Automatic annotation (TrEMBL):
Superkingdom in the source lineage: Bacteria
Matches recorded under PANTHER family: PROTEIN DIPZ (PTHR42852:SF13), THIOL:DISULFIDE INTERCHANGE PROTEIN DSBE (PTHR42852)
A Pfam family recorded for this sequence: AhpC-TSA
Domain Thioredoxin per the UniProt entry, residue ranges: 28-170
Keyword Ion transport carried by entry: no
Database matches in InterPro entries: AhpC/TSA, Thioredoxin-like_sf, Thioredoxin_CS, Thioredoxin_domain, Thioredoxin_ResA/DsbE_sf
Protein name in the entry: TlpA family protein disulfide reductase
Taxonomic lineage: Bacteria, Pseudomonadati, Pseudomonadota, Alphaproteobacteria, Minwuiales
SUPFAM superfamilies documented for this protein: Thioredoxin-like (SSF52833)
Keyword RNA-binding: no
Alphabetical UniProt keywords: Redox-active center
GO molecular function, one term: disulfide oxidoreductase activity
Length: 179
């Protein structure tokens, strides 16, 4: 009985240690190419990912009808507030077919103020990147390649996530996000 308890406690300690050492997102061994993705701003202007070359981008593909997406959106807004600037931006790309009004209402309802409103009503972006669920988030480097991917929700404004992203930003842009 003691041996079984010892083994169980050992397994729990090893799993806890492994989780503590894991980064919030797993970086790819090599940056991956991303196909061209086009989308619109809430005011109707056309954009594509090349518009952010030279910066680190956290591209979050989401929808207002997705409960986990709805839950994480305020954390993305706070992340943009903390790290957003000339070296980093969160792009929350909605694939809502109902249009910009639904997304704008959701932003107002949840207090999202720092994220710009981007929309891909066709949903083509999630298909192009090979997304298998929502939310799907890509960490994109300054050359436009995928550095990491996370399928599913996250708490984007935790101290661990902020520290991880600050390290990635510094490594890929050669500059820290804060003095």
């Amino acid at each position: 009985m003691r041996l079984l308890a010892f083994v169980a406690i050992s397994v729990i300690l090893v799993i806890s240690a492994l989780r503590a050492e894991q980064a919030p997102m797993s970086l790819h061994d090599e940056p991956q190419p991303i196909p061209p993705i086009g989308f619109k701003h809430g005011d109707g202007r056309d954009y594509n990912l090349d518009d952010w070359r030279g910066r680190i981008v956290l591209l979050n593909i989401w929808a207002t009808w997705c409960p986990p997406c709805r839950h994480e959106m305020p954390t993305l807004d706070r992340l943009q507030d903390q790290l957003g600037g000339e070296r980093f931006e969160v792009i929350a790309l909605s694939i809502d077919r109902a249009g910009v009004g639904v997304v704008r209402s959701f932003f107002e309802e949840t207090g999202v103020r720092r994220l710009r409103l981007f929309l891909d009503e066709t949903g083509e972006s999630v298909r192009k990147i090979g997304g298998f669920g929502l939310p799907t988030t890509l960490l994109i480097g300054p050359q436009g390649n995928e550095l990491a991917r996370l399928v599913g929700p996250a708490e984007w404004d935790t101290p661990e996530m902020i520290a991880f992203l600050e390290t990635v930003i510094a490594e890929h842009t050669g500059k820290q996000t804060r003095p």
